[in-house]
Amino acid sequence: MILVTGATGQLGSATFVFLLKKLPASQLAALVRDERKAADLAEKGVTIRVGSYDDKASLDRAMQGIDKVLLIAGTDEDKRVQQHMNVVDAAKKAHVQLVAYTSRALKDRHTLANRLMEGHFLTEDYLIASGLNYALFRNILYMDAIPQFVGPNVFETGIHLPAGLGKVAFALRNDMAEAMATVLAGADVDSTIYTLTGSKGYSFADVALALAELSGKVVTYSPVEKPAFESQMKARGLPDPMVQRVVGFMTDIANGQEDYVCLDLETLLGRKPASLKDGLKMLYKL
After folding, report:
1. For 18-46, how does the pLDDT look when each residue is reduced to its tens digit (9 = 90+)?
2. Segment 60-100, tens digit of pLDDT
3. How, if at all, do strands 68-71 and 47-50 pair?
4. Closest to 86 (Cα-Cα) out of 68, 99, 105, 97
5. What mean pLDDT is reported for the chain?
6. Can you tell me the distance from the alpha carbon of 170 to that of 181, in angstroms, rounded to the nearest whole number?
7. Are 231 and 239 in contact (CB under 8 A)?
8. CA–CA gap between residue 260 and residue 197 (Å, rounded)
């Protein structure tokens, strides 16, 4: 049986869509904090196990009879490394055959501007040291995040970000979810690292050009300095931690951390992942 944590979140929900196409629901379990939010999965026959990353007893219960676990990264950035360790410990205690983790595809963990990303690598280190078989899904930045980064008025104001000409091999969340489901549904439990990226790197100038072509409007990209961008974000009412998080992402992009292309996603999908233009067409309903 496969247990997916964070099962009602965006990535967890998307992964279940593909798992249910590959396996009977009787072979799937979902770890959720609120059982009511998993009613649709329960109706499909998925086993629901209630618990949280902080509740070690609930994790021990959730792991009973489980062969594989997909640990989806927690969102509590202050606590999530310990939370992830709790999941790994429970899996080891239950003799789970494979633990998969949703990490990040970044070039060099030691030179990151966005230190929040370090938690992913600390989780990787702990999982590898546990002695469990593992699958590390090092995911590139979601293409789905572009609307959040460029803002709601992109077709009126253009794109203004401190990302320089840095590129990102953006991929859609759904493509990553399908690839992860393929691995989980397979028989292989050997330790493997998968780097899931798009087939090509794109700058925000490329994003602007694609949006212009799709919409028929003038959309330009203007690189800005970090202080000006921080002021703009704060003027929009965003809290300082959110501002610093976005600035960290943009700085790493400018420094080439996300300019990383690997064929693992294409291989797992059996096709090329969605291109930037195809993805933006879907995201913006153009």
Report:
1. 999 999 999 999 999 999 999 999 999 99
2. 999 999 999 999 999 888 899 999 999 999 999 999 999 99
3. unpaired
4. 99
5. 95
6. 19
7. no
8. 7
Q: How far apart are CA 49 and CA 42, in angstroms?
A: 10
Q: Are 148 and 245 in contact (CB under 8 A)?
A: no
- For 234, list phi and psi in degrees, rounded to 5: -65, -35
Q: Is 280 helix (H, G, I), strand (E, B) or coil?
A: helix
In whole angstroms, give the CA distance from residue 127 to residue 69. Answer: 12
Q: Which residue has the tokens 């091999």?
A: 169
pLDDT digits (tens, 9 = 90+) for 233-264: 888 788 888 888 889 999 999 999 999 999 99
Whose tokens are 């992109």? That residue is: 154
For position 21, what pLDDT does the model report? Answer: 97
Displacement of CA 106 from its chain's centroid (Å) = 12
Residues 82, 48, 135, 177, CA torsion sign: negative
Rounded to whole angstroms, what are the CA distances from 113 to 73, 148, 153?
20, 20, 27
Structure tokens at 144: 């789905």
DSSP bridge partners of 138 = 103, 195
pLDDT by residue (tens digit) across 124-154? 999 999 999 999 999 999 999 999 899 889 9
Question: Is the torsion defined by CA of 184, 196, 131, 87 positive or negative?
Answer: negative
* Domains of the chain by start residue, with CATH: 2-140+171-196+261-270 (3.40.50.720)
pTM: 0.95
